[in-house]
Amino acid sequence: MQQKKVIAFVTGGYSGEAEISYKSAITIGKNLDREKFDVYKIDIRKDGWFYLPETGDPVAVNQNGFIIELPDKTIRFDAVLIGIHGTPGEDGKLQGYFDLQGLPYTSCDAATSALTFNKRYTVAVAAFAGINVARSLHLFRERPLEPAAILDQLKLPVFVKPNNGGSSIGMSKVSRPEDLEAAIQKAFGEDNQVLIEEFITGREFTIGVFQSKGEIITLPFTEIIAKNEFFDFEAKYAGKSEEITPAQVDIVVAEKVREAARKVYRVFNCRGIIRIDFIYNEAAGAPYMLEINTVPGQSEASIVPQQVRAMGWTLKDFYSALIEDALEHK
């Protein structure tokens, strides 16, 4: 009988997005194939990295080699399943650490993770590669711009959001000039950099994309109909949106979205599961990329699990495919 691969499942994180990571961890933990893998859940927090056994006290992880030293044995890993949203699991820091350890992992590499965590750099690379994106401005806390100077370059309405991170925390839609400064300060409350983007009218779609056995696979995509003015944190996590999976669209539109998603995956050299948000603008007859999530949410309410089920896979099959793909890159 083939020996089980030993997998570190990392959760937690150093940012406010840790609460989303813990919700994802519940779903992932319930759907990992324990017949294929020996799984060790590791909580990465600012006060330390800890293995969480099912019974007994947490055990500190030896970060000099990423090993767990138990009384009767030392645990070394074959691969890492990354379930951390925000820093350090989505911004390339952990990926760089695991690269130094020679450990494969289930996400994009360090360079792609760091790039896509920065929304402005993401849209700049996408535009350079011929992927449609909104016009935008990048603000730095130490080099502020007056609202009037911003409105000389961008047309209202605009979205104002923290440049780094996900989960739509600190994001605002601004339709009146007098509201712009407050929205910028709200975003600066979450990050030292802010992205301001022109609003593109159209239907909002979000699509999961992953790689398995050398093939880029697009999941059945979702249309987001926000009950709030846009798809913000409340809409995402407090049920303030309607999500239709699979989206009801004609074949031509569906293929344009899928092809754009595959192109994004290739251009950014992605690995593992990502989720890409698009606005489909009818006038242009084209999808516009909003952002890339390289560690998308996996809670029961999250979109990727909905899409996996819509494809006819079980989550157990899906997480196994992600781990097996990572092991192939060892």
From TrEMBL:
It is an enzyme of class 6 (ligase). It catalyses: 2 D-alanine + ATP = D-alanyl-D-alanine + ADP + phosphate + H(+). GO terms for molecular function: ATP binding; D-alanine-D-alanine ligase activity; metal ion binding. Gene3D superfamilies: 3.40.50.20, ATP-grasp fold, A domain (3.30.1490.20), ATP-grasp fold, B domain (3.30.470.20). Its cofactor is Mg(2+); Mn(2+). Its EC number is 6.3.2.4. Pfam families: Dala_Dala_lig_C, Dala_Dala_lig_N. Its main location: cytoplasm. InterPro entries: ATP-grasp, ATP_grasp_subdomain_1, D-Ala_lig_Van_CS, D_ala_D_ala, Dala_Dala_lig_C, Dala_Dala_lig_N, PreATP-grasp_dom_sf. Cell wall formation. This is D-alanine--D-alanine ligase.
